[in-house]
Amino acid sequence: MTKFTPVLSRLMLLLSQMIDLFKPQNVARNLRQRDKLIGSILALLTGIGVAYAAIGFRTLIYLSQEVLLGNHNENILSHVDNLPAWKIILSTVTGGLVVSFIYRYLMRSAQPGSIADVMAANAVHHTVIPTRKGLFSALASAIALGSGSAAGREGPVVHLGATVSSWVAQRLHLSPNISRTLLGCGVAAAVSASFNAPIAGVFFALEVILGHYALSAFAPIVIASVSAAIVARIHIGNFPGFIIPDYYITTFWEFPAFILLGLISALAAIIFIKSLFFTEEFARKLSLPEWALPPFGGLAIGLLALISPYILGHGYGTTDGALKEIFSIQTLLLLIVLKVAASAIALAFRYGAGIFSPSLFLGAMVGGAFGFVAAAAAAQFGGVEFSYGLYAIVGMGAVSSAVLGAPISTILIIFELTGDYQITIALMVSVVISNLVTQHYLRATSVFHMQLKRIGLDLEGGRARHVMRSTHVHSLMQNDYAIASDMASIKDVQHVLLTKDHDHIYIIDEGCNLKGSVTLAELRKCPENTEENKEESPDAPLTAADICRPVTATLTPSDNLEDAFQKFDQSGEKALPVVTDDEQAEIVGILYHKQVLKAYNQALLSEKE
């Protein structure tokens, strides 16, 4: 027995070390020490996990659709044509009631998750997305879409992917750096699996969610996106989201038409976004209990679907029809109006959450209708034949990119769908114009930024800029400043500066109003009492009021650091006084330029992490 004791001791020691290695606190420490390697492994696992979550979400849509609408296919275009009116109304209202039950009793929140929530989680919530809300929100969105909601599929899928990655980060106690990268991995994987577009998935995560293209985040996000695409292709098939005929640009004289389409797409995007917020305000003013909103929205969408059932669901079948030129211009124009109304109702009444699919639908209809007019004009005046389906593709990209604020991602999605370089060039022209016009008019990058601004969260410019906007002067200003009366003599001013160890002093009058400032350098150049001064006013020596210069800029405690940056740049001062925000403008503190720079640098470092 003694002979085996050392061996047993070593085995016990090894076993103890292995157990210690897998304790949560030790796992977290090891992960932090090997960020790149572990980040890549987690990106791979996250990509696979999110891909299966996206497949599960799609399956839930089809199951709900089978039960409520009687068809489990993604393209229900031909099926909805034959649906009786009572079945459409029953489906949408029942779906709304089920969604309301999930919100009230399972999710315990009346607000479904969206892409805006993912952006907020990345910027201010340390990438934390409540798992319960994320999962039940996905369930509610799937049932809503399966029952006929005119909302989108990609928004809920992106939120679900972010929920999965957030859960992993929380369970493993990952560092902020890996957590944010993993959030991007979840988003990229969701878009990749949904569209079978891994390149677009990568750039959507970087462009919309993370807001930067740092190399440290790029590699893991690529791994997640590619792995998700592979899993989706294994289970769903290796084909794009839309099967598009071979269109081509007949003549380069079509490019003026693409420029005009960009302007019209911007107008469509603006109307769509304005409709979303108008309908949301309308729903808020209605005296309906929260539980009644989804079924009421379902009823409204059902009634609109009686005019044209092609607006039911995420609408990919109808979008595909526009790309294949199977609709008349009258149908396209009708669908534009109905889809804008139905999608706005769906989102306002919490009967679904996605904006991505409706914006693609709307863009295809707008582009198709424009293509009809362009083709007729070309045939009439130039004897050239245009394909309106080509304009439907370009319009789809131009409108959706302006709504989502994702021009690069949208261009890549369309390129991956078509594989056509010439069409992509035309798309780039329309996308750039539509984005410029929309952002100029709305003063916002995307509908998501506008949603966040409505709840007091301004993420224009990224997390670093948000920190600058949300940090106020009162949190950084110092109370250690020098003041002197405007009647003080030069010697008194000099004495204060030397004893207080400051290089400048602020001059105030009897009412404590700020009159100006004097620097030590200026004081040295000023003679206390020259012969010339004595001759002019022998009994009136110079006072602080005589030598101080006006303060060109002041701050108030409620100003944010972005305001402070601008005032420092305009004034060229190294320090600015902080005064009360009233008529008296009494000095209460001082802020140094270096403090603002330090805060900004810290925000940038936090952004990188």
Question: What integer is the average pLDDT?
Answer: 84
Radius of gyration: 31 Å
Class per helix and strand makeup: mainly alpha
Distance between the termini: 55 Å
Please state how the strands of the largest beta sheet are arranged side by side. Answer: 1-2-3
Strand element count: 5
Shape: elongated
Counted by DSSP, the helix tally is: 27
Which strand-content bin applies to the residues?
under 5%
**Main beta sheet strand tally, sense and closure:** 3 strands, mixed
User: Which ranges are low-confidence, i.e. pLDDT below 50, for 5 or more consecutive residues?
Assistant: 529-534
Helical percentage: 55-70%
List descriptors.
three-stranded mixed beta sheet; 609 residues; two-stranded antiparallel ribbon; elongated; 27 helices; mainly alpha
What does this structure look like?
With 609 residues, this protein is mainly alpha-helical. Helices cover 67% and strands 4% of the residues. It contains 27 helices and 5 strands. The strands form 2 sheets. A 3-stranded mixed beta sheet has the order 1-2-3. A two-stranded antiparallel sheet has the order 4-5. Strand 4 and strand 5 form a beta hairpin. Helix 10 crosses helix 11, helix 12 packs across helix 19 and helix 13 packs antiparallel against helix 15. The radius of gyration is 31 Å and the shape is elongated. The relative contact order is 0.09.
